[in-house]
Amino acid sequence: AQSVTQLGSHVSVSEGALVLLRCNYSSSVPPYLFWYVQYPNQGLQLLLKYTSAATLVKGINGFEAEFKKSETSFHLTKPSAHMSDAAEYFCAVSADNQGGKLIFGQGTELSVKP
Amino acid sequence: DTGVSQNPRHKITKRGQNVTFRCDPISEHNRLYWYRQTLGQGPEFLTYFQNEAQLEKSRLLSDRFSAERPKGSFSTLEIQRTEQGDSAMYLCASTQRRTSGGSETQYFGPGTRLLVL
Fold it and tell me: What pLDDT digit, counting tens, does each position of A92-106 carry?
């Protein structure tokens, strides 16, 4: 079975500060890992994904994430927050033997203060 | 590529009524997924199709729920005898399955928000 835990349901940073959103996963098989962003009343948009190539993954809007197998983590970072980054962020896991379905964490709401 | 579309965007219904949602995936995508998202939670998997075949249903999908993808293109999700606990955002996603499963990006529609009174 697979699962995802996102530490912190709400994170608040100042504009220009580092963004760090934490994600830990559990998987009995090699995982694929994803970060999605959701703006109010909208669907989910892919930020980046890990598919067993490079462990440091770069995504859109300046975000990146590092896959650490020893820590079962896939934390999302951005060096400098913008006001437009305020949204809900979801970490998700899938695997080859799971039909491609995504198992999501509970989400982290990011607030950016001016 | 016009993206994944869902209709209606919002639905308000009374308890006990039936509702049907439609999802139009990206045209060349052979896989279609349905998820349900309640307030403050991440999306939860409901079911998925490979072309017209429904390959998996979550235990969340009670017998009041039925999904179809009759010609391998659009899909419908019907809820019969709605209950207040069915109030949620229903999300559809599509992808093009290649030889390896699980790593393909799923593209999400804007969702249908259901409110059962």
Answer: 998 777 778 999 999
Do the chains contact at A43 and B110, CB–CB below 8 Å? Answer: yes
Give the whole-angstrom CA distance, residue A26 versus residue A98. Answer: 14
Is residue B102's pLDDT more than 80?
A: no
Q: Which of A41, A46, A96 sits opposite B101 (nearest CB)?
A: A96
Ordered DSSP codes for chain A:
--EEEEE-SEEEEETTS-EEEEEEEE-SS--EEEEEEE-TTS-EEEEEEE-SS-SEEE-GGG-EEEEETTTTEEEEEESS--GGG-EEEEEEEE-GGGTT--EE---EEEEEE-
Give the residue from A91, A66, A87, A84 showing the smallest Cα distance to A16.
A84
CA distances from A94 to A1, A29, A83 (A): 10, 10, 30
Given this model, what pLDDT does residue B76 score? Answer: 98
Which is it for strands A10-14 and A64-68: parallel, antiparallel or unpaired?
unpaired
Task: Report the gap between the CA of B24 and the closest CA in chain A (Å).
Answer: 14
**What is the sign, positive or negative, of the torsion defined by CA atoms of A79, A80, A85, A87?**
positive
pLDDT value, residue B100:
57
Adjacent-strand bridge partners of B20: B78
In eight-state DSSP terms, residue B106 is: P
Tens of pLDDT along B45-96?
999 999 999 999 998 888 999 999 998 899 999 999 999 999 999 999 999 9
**Smallest Cα distance from B20 to chain A, Å:** 19
Q: How many CB atoms sit inside 10 A of residue A68's CB?
A: 12
